[in-house]
Amino acid sequence: MVMKKKGWLVIFEATIAIGMILGTMLVMYRGQRIDFNENEYMIELQKDILMELARNDSIRVEITNQENSDYDNIYLFIQDRIPRTWNFNFTICDLKEECSFKGEYPETDILVQERIIVGILSKNQSPDNWKKIRLFFWRNKFQ
Q1: How far apart are CA 76 and CA 101, in angstroms?
Q2: 15-36 confidence digits (pLDDT tens)
Q3: Which of 34, 46, 122, 143 could be a cystine partner for 113, CB 3.0 to 4.6 Å?
Q4: Count of the separate structural domains present in the chain
Q5: pTM of this prediction?
């Protein structure tokens, strides 16, 4: 009779050990999946922000204005829409130019999306006045 109780105890201990191993694996798997989903979310957010910029008449004029070099409204527009755990930068250039990252290059992966912006359409509008905006997102170093 004593041997049967020891057998059940061994089976119970093995079941607990397997449950702990599976629980640890599940937590590790979910942790990896969150990072992947966050990047996908941020890429979609970039696309949405660029779409909003393209639909906003005043911002389109600000982007396509040749004399304008101060883009505070655009900066605030983007800043209000991204999580505080992420940083961003953007460049605006002519269609034929290469929009490269300006400033200190972060030591992490960067998510990049771009869009062509056309000013208010008129008869005088030509592709020479069109601009390209490139949006860069990266995670903060300290979260």
Answers
A1: 19
A2: 999 999 999 988 887 766 554 5
A3: 46
A4: 1
A5: 0.67
